[in-house]
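User: Could you check the structure of this?
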Amino acid sequence: MPRATADKRFPLETPRWGFSFSDQFTRVLPARIVYAVSVVEATVEVKNRLGLHLRAASTLAQAAGRFSSKITIARGKNQVSAKSVTGLMMLGAEKGVKVKIRAEGEDARDALKVVETLFEERFGEE
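Assistant: Sure, the predicted structure tokens are below.
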């Protein structure tokens, strides 16, 4: 039976980084804590007469900015941050358009509720 010899590419001694080649696959890494992330979505219709114009976009961005969650608004393939007035205006969401709201983070449910309310109340304009 042949005797096992050390391969020069994979030395048997422990290198300077503290573990040998065989340890790379058998080492147990320290435990990591993974927190549950809340993701909620809703589809709403733009109901105000002027659509998602500057004043409405500004109101929405200010409301979204109060939350730590990532909040996005999507129309078709275009998706923008609800915290960006410019992005919201680029959606070109006029009256009757349906947009998808997505909130992801610790306060996602509260954020979604506030954003939905803004759309339902026509951003306080009418």
